[in-house]
Protein 1
Amino acid sequence: MRKVPNTPPRRRPRRRPAAASPTHGRAHPGAKQRPHDHRRMHEAKWTRADAVAVLDTPERRAHQDPAELWRRVRLREGDVVVDVGAGSGFFALPAAIVVGPQGRVYAVDVSEELVELVREKVEASRIRNVEPVLSTPRHIPIEDALADVVLLANVFHGIPPESVREAVRLLRPGGRLIDVDWKKEETPEGPPIEHRLAVPEATAALRAHGLVRVDSFELGPSHYVLVFERSRPSHLPGHLVSAE
C-alpha cells in the first residue's frame, strides 16, 4: 500500500491581546472595570492622557470644587502652598489665584508629563506665582519649613512613608497639612476600597508624623478632608525662634 505522508495539524492564528487604554493599562488586580475612574491614584505616575481622561473633567470639578476647598481651609493671600501630587494642577492653579502675587504655589509631581503639562498651563495663562516641580517619591527638591500649607489630594492612601515625611518636612511650624481623600466606602468611581484609608486610619497615620488634627469636613459625596497643623516648638537647640 502506498503510504500517505503525515500532514501537520493546521495552526490557528494567535490572537493579539487588545491594546490597553491609557487609563486602564495597569489596573490593580481585582479592580472593577469602570470608565475613567481613579483606581490608579495609588500608582506612582500618571500621564498626560490620564489627566485628560480623569483629572480635569467637569464631573470631578463638580464633586471636588477647588475653590470650595481653599475657602474651607481659609487659604490666605500671601501663603506659600506645596501641592504634593499636583497632577494636572487641578488644585494648584486655583490656589495661585487665592494666594495672589505675594504668595507662591509649588506644583509637585513625580510624572514628567504632568509637570510639563502644568508648566504649559502656567505659561499659557501667564501665571507668575506657580512653580512646577519634578520630584521623586523619596525627595522633594524644596527647602525645609517653606510652606504655610501642604496639600495631599487623593494621594495619601497610596504614597510611601518617605513621601509623607517629605511633605511634613516642608511645613513651617504652625503650617497646615490638608489631606483630601476618598471615603472608605463604595463610590461610583475611585480606587479599590482596600487601598483607601478610613478617617481614623488617616488620622492616626498623620499624627504619627507629629501633626495635630484641627479640623475635618466632607468635600462632595465621595471625599473627606482632614486638616492638620505642625506644632510650634517652644525652642530649637542652637536656634533662636522669633515669636509670631
Protein 2
Amino acid sequence: MKNTTNFLIVIAGPTAVGKTDTAISVSLAFHSEILSADSRQFYKELKIGAAPPSPEQLAQVPHHFIGTKNISEYYNVSRYEQDVLKLLPELFDKSPVVIMTGGSGLYIDAVCFGIDDMPEFDPELRNILTERMNKEGVESLRMELKKLDPVTYSQIDLKNKNRIFRALEMCLLTGKPYSDFLLKTHKTRPFQIVKIALNIDRKELHNKINSRTDQMMEDGLLEEARTLIPFRHHNALKTVGYKELFDYFDGNSTLETAIELIKRNTRRYARKQISWFNRNNDYTWFTPDQISEINGFIQKEISKT
C-alpha cells in the first residue's frame, strides 16, 4: 500500500455477530491495530458480561480501549471521542490503516462525525434533580425532558432512569436540548473513513446470542454479577446481562427467568443496533465469513485516493 492517506476502517454490527474475529482478520491483513467502540468493554471489571475479546484474541492484534477504566470512573462519549482522536496519530505513524470495531453506534458516530464537548455536571443542579426524582419519581423528569427535548425523548430508553436524568440535566445545565450535542454538521477529520457493517440471518443471530448467554453463565457471569452488586448504580451495570441478574438477587425472579430475559433483551438490543446502522447509508454490509470480500472492498476504497 503506497498511498499516504490514513484510513479509519469501521466494522460495526449487532452483538454476537462476530465483529471481533472479523476485525482481527482485517487488521492482520492490513497490519493495523484495533480500537474498541463498545461502551461496556472499557471497564476492566466486566470480564464476562461485556463479552470483551479473549486473551487469545487480544494476543493476535494490539487492542485499545479494552479494560482501561474502573467501573466507578466517570466516562462518556465526549471523552471517548477526545481520547481516540489523541491516539490515532500515534497509530497512523505505525500503519495508514486503523480498525475501529464495536456495536455502540453513538461512540462510532462521535469519532466519525464529532460531538460537542459535554460540560461536567453542576453539583447543586444534580442535588436538586436527585431530590426531585426521589420525591416525584422519574416520570416527572421524563415529562420535562419531553417538553425540553422531544428528539432525545423519542430516542432514549425511557426505562433507564440514569439516561433520563442525564439528558434532562444537560438541558437545564446548558439551556439547549441534549440532542443538540450531536452535531448537525460533521467535523472535518484528517483521515478517510470506510464503514462496514456485519449481519447474518436473524435466526442464526438469535441462536448465537442464546448460545453466548449460556456460555457466559458457564464461564461465571452469575458470580461476576454478584461481586458487582456494590456498583449496581453505575450506568455500565444498568444494561443487559447484569440488571436481570440483580433482579434475581433481589428475589424478583428465578435464575431461569433471569437467563431467559438476558437472551430476550439481548435479541432486542441487537435489533436496535441493526436499525441504528441501517439508518446510515454510508455502511456497506457483509456477513462475517466474507473476509476476502471485505479486504477487497477496503483495498478498493483505499486505491480510490
Protein 3
Amino acid sequence: MATNDSPKRFSRRDFLRLGGGLAVAAAGAGLLSKAGTLLRPAAVESAARASRLGAPDQAPANVHLIGTDGWVYLPPAPALPPWHPDPWAPAPFTTYVFGLRDVTALAPEQIAQQTGKVQISASPIYADEGQDFRIKLTNPGFVVRPDLIDAHTVHWHGFRNQIPYYDGSPMDSIGVPAGASFTYFYRLRDPGTYMYHCHFEDTEHVHMGMTGSVFVRPAQNAGNPGLGIPAGKYVYNDGVLPGDPRSTAYDREFVLLLTEIWAHQHWNGAHIQETDWSDYEPDFFLLNGRVYPHTLAPNGGETDPITGDLIAPAGFPELQYQPISSLIQANAGDRVLLRIINLGFKLQTMALPGLDLHIVGKDATLLRGRDGSDLSYHTNSIPIGPGESVDTIFTAPSVSTQTNYLFYNRNYDHLSNAGGAGYGGQMTEVRIFPAGTLPPQTRPNT
C-alpha cells in the first residue's frame, strides 16, 4: 500500500486550534497554577486560581455565555442566488451565523439544549465600576457544521487593565475548545461603553455574528456627597451637577451595535466553502442584529421556562434569535443616552437630523482634557470607525403629540437590504411622547 510521508502543513487555524486546546488541557491538568505563580503580583495569581475550570473555590460567574451556530432572518427579497436566502435554512430563517448567547438564568439541563440556538447580536452586558466581574464562556460546538472544531474566546475590546491570561486573544490567552468552559476575570476600573467579541479566527467569527456590547456604570451613580452630586444615572464620573452643560446625566439609554453581513461568506460558512476576504462586500447593514424596518419591532429575549429556548417577539416569529430592538422612545424633557458601537469592518456615519446630539464620550473615555477642559461637542452626524464606540446624549424636545425622527446611516448604500428597493439597513426611529407618557426605564433598550 502506498503511503505519503510528506509532512502536513499547518494552517493558521490549525495552529490556533492546537494552541487553544493545549492551553485548556493544561488548565485542566493544573499546569496553569505554575503559570499563575509567574504572573505576579499575588492578586493576579489569586484571580487565575479563581478561574480554573472546575476549581472548587471558583466564584460564580456574573454572566454565562455559550458560543454556537444557527440560523437567523434577513429579508429574502431581493434574492442573491445562490447565496441568499440559503436553501438549507429552516423556515422562517434565511441566513447561517455564529453567535454568543446569554444563558445565565438557565438550568444546566436547559443550557445543554441550546446548541444550535444562536443569537445576534449578543445581549448587552453591564456592570459597576469597582466590581470584580466574571464571564463564563461555554463552547458546546456547532450543529450545522459539526466538522468545525473552532475554539471560542471572549475579548473585551478596549478594556484597559487586562492581563493576557484573560484577554481572549488566542495567541496570548485561553481558547475554549468544543466541550469545555472557561471563566474570564475582570476588575472594573474605567466606566464607559465597550464591546466584546470572539477573537479566535476573529475576521470570520466577528463577521459571522459573535459580537456584543458591554459597558461599565460609573461610581458617581451612587452620588458624590462631597461635590453635592445626587445619586442618579451618569455615563462617566464627570464631577459636575446635573444641569451643568458638561453633565453626563441621563434618564434613558439605548445601545446600538452596528454590524454587517456578506451573504456570500455566510453561505460559504454553511456549505463548507472557503472565503476570499479580499472580495469583502457586505449586502446587509444591521443595528442590534436586525435591518430596517425590523429594527422597530419589539424586544424578544424571554426564554421558554421548559426548554430554555428564546421566545420570539410578539408578531415576529422570524426574529426569534434577533431579540434586541433598536427603537428609541422617550418622554419630552428626557435626557436620552445612545451608546453607539461599530463592530463591522466599514466606516459608518449615523445621522439624526432635527435633534442636537451632545458627544460626551468616545472609546470609553470622557471627552475632558487633562487640564479639565471640556472636549465634548454638539452635532447631528456621528462618524464611527470599526472597533470604536461613541456616547451621545440628546434632550427630547417638548411635544404635544407623538413626534418621530429618523436615525439612519448617512451612506444611502447602507440603507437598502441587498440593494433592493425601499429603505432598509441601519435605520431606526426616535419617538418622542408628551411628558409622563412612558413609565421610567428599567433596563436599556426598553
Protein 4
Amino acid sequence: MKIDQSTTLADAVDACPSLAREFERRGLDYCCNGQRTLAAACDEAGLDREVVVAELEDAVRPGATSDHADWTAMSADALVDHLEATHHRYLWTELPRVTVLLHKIIGVHGARHPELRDIAVCFAQIRADLEPHMLKEERVLFPMIRELATSSGPAEFHCGSLRNPISVMLREHDDVGRLLATLHHLTNGYTEPTDGCATYMACFAAMAAIEADTHLHIHKENNVLFPLVVRMEAERAAQHIV
C-alpha cells in the first residue's frame, strides 16, 4: 500500500500487519486509536511526520515483507473463532504464567528492585480486567455474533442491539490499553536491570509480548470485527422492515 500522512494507523496495519511492530516501537496506538491519521498520531507523539512516513514506506517496500492480514477478509463468525483460537487462548496461558514469573523474581530481586511490587500490582490489574472481559466475549458477545452471522431471519437479542455490548467492550479495551501503557512505563519499556537473572529477562520479554499481542487483538476487534457486526446488524434490520 501507499503510506502517507493521511493513512490511518488501523488501515496501515490491516494492509501490512508487520507495521504493527513499527508502531509499537514508536509508541503509536493503532488499536484503541486506530482511526487517527499518521499525521495526527505523529503530532501527538512528538514525532516528525515525514521521517516516520519515509521509514514506514521503506518497511513495506516491495520485497521487504510478504505478510497479509487474513482477518480483513474473514466473515464475522470466522473472525470470532480466530480471536478465540489465537489471542484468547494465548492470554489464558500467558497471564497466569507471567504471574508466576513475577512472584519468582520478586522473591529473589524484590529487595534490590522495589519497583517490582508496582509492576506486579499493575499486571494483576491487567489480568483482572482481561480475564472477565474474555469470558464475556466468549460466553455472551461472540455467540450472539455467530448467531447474527449464520441466521437468515431477523436477529433479536436480549441486549437489544449488539451496539450495546460492543460499547462496553470498547470501554474495557480503553481501560486495558491505559494499564498496558502504565506497565510499559513501570518496566522502562520492558528493559530488565543489569543484575537481572534469566527468569527476570523471560518475565519482561513475556510481558512485552502480551502487550504487543493485546494491541493487535484489540485492533482486530475495534477496527475490523465491531464495525463489521454493526454493518451486518443494520443491513439485517433493513432487510426485514415491513
